[in-house]
Amino acid sequence: MTLVVRQAAPGDLEAALQVWRAANEARGRAPSTERIARVREKLRDPDALVIIGRDGDEPVSMGLAEPGRADDGAGAPIPAYGHVSMVFVHPGRWGEGHGGLVLAALHEGGWERTTLWTRTDNARARRLYEKAGYRPTGRTSTLGGGDGIMQLERIG
Length: 156
Hints:
Layout: E1 3-7, H1 13-26, H2 33-44, E2 49-55, E3 58-69, E4 77-89, H3 98-107, E5 113-119, H4 123-131, E6 135-142, E7 148-155
Parallel strand pairs: 4-5
Antiparallel strand pairs: 1-2, 2-3, 3-4, 5-7, 6-7
């Protein structure tokens, strides 16, 4: 098989959703019906850059970035600023470098600065992001379920 990481076509969006669901379920975070609907909507947003990684016909990874916005995402788009909302790899392919390939493809969106949020206890994700040039901004928050999250930023 041949691994291909590329911008997703409309026909790839359900495969990207499947990768997202499988990764969340493997981490013990099975998404609700409402959350699935919100992610499906984000994947279809015309401003989103969606990346799909396929090994032959098998979807193995996905990512989504969108224009960065003022006011913590509620305001107007900021030129040259992107926000990485999702990077997920099918659990059967964890540790094979797919996340780095997805991030590299997302960085081809042409942004000078990108940010993302990740759980503070997600060491695997933090290693991936730091290897790709992301650094902590010092901003932290807490999700509704009590999990701590931190913002990371990449310049260039």
